[in-house]
Amino acid sequence: MVVVARTVVGDRMQLLVAPITHSKPEEGEGVEVPPPVKRYLGLDRERSWIITTELNRFIWPGPDIRLAPGDDDPFYGEIPARLFEEMRSAILANAARLRMTKRTE
């Protein structure tokens, strides 16, 4: 998942994240993650997209981020500024139909 925004809630953060999927979204509903970025983040080789019509909201730390097998850190790395801006612009363009899902807190 990609962190889109965060605000402090007490001593914890409320995160908004855009999900990443292997399922190709409809035109205008996602941004493809380039293979070099996937390699850098340690993700698999299958094509993936950041969904830009849905955000998940939850408090961190919490049960909603799972660690990668053999890893003890949920931080995979930063995405390039250009990809982040493309994702951000697409989310803003989809604001009227953006779904917000509240996860476990």
Could you characterize the architecture of this molecule?
With 105 residues, the protein is an alpha+beta fold. It has one domain (2-64, 75-102): Roll (SH3 type barrels). It is 19% helix and 32% strand. The protein has helices at residues 35-41, 81-93, and strands at 2-9, 12-18, 20-21, 30-32, 49-51, 54-60, 99-102. It has a four-stranded mixed beta sheet with strand order 1-2-6-7, with no helix packed on it. It has a three-stranded antiparallel beta sheet with strand order 3-5-4, covered by helices on one side. Strand 1 and strand 2 (12-18) form a beta hairpin. The model has no long low-confidence stretch (mean pLDDT 85).
From the structure above, extract its key features.
about 100 residues, alpha+beta, three-stranded antiparallel sheet, 2 helices, about 20% helix
